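Shapes recur. Our protein:

. . .
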Amino acid sequence: MKNISFGGVILIAKYSKNKINVNWPLIYHFNIALEESDPLVWRKIVVPADYSFYKLHMAIQGAFGWENRHLFQFSENGFKSKLCYGIPDDDETDPELVILDARKTRINKVFNKRGQSLVYIYDFGDNWEHRITFEKKEMKDMDPLCCLKGAGACPPEDVGGIGGYNSMLEGFQSDNHSEKMQYREWLGLVEGETWNAAFCSIRKVNKRLCLLE
């Protein structure tokens, strides 16, 4: 048995078939849930510990199925926070808001305790709020960027936030044929295709994540 220090983490390696290899990547486990979504849209992902917040943003985009069309930020309390990680904007109108460059800040400088969480907001118009919870870090012989579990379909871009998405789901359940057809046309659904709000294909999620590596 031997103690190994890696990235500030003390790991105990046993000489067995399950022993830790110092060449394995240090990875972070996150649970990410779209606030107020019903059915709940969530993903459990792992990413390299040395990722920047920008790369974490891109991993969330791929894991959920967003299209990276809009601005984003990470913070403790959403728009109430005066410190966030995002893309600095010279046109920012709030003089008290401090935006740290997400491209230059590593997640391992911020996430260091199990259960620690931040709010990730995507699209400042629709305001999609995601709760990111740091579950654990470990060295493991596995793909350092992948989705382990998840459920719920990603809402369409520009649907109008949670309120607009709920209206869309209600429209599909209503007896108003015209309303259903409008949503079907807007989504580009073909004959026989439906919108399943509870469905999530982990295989397709990981195919998207593969494109980020």
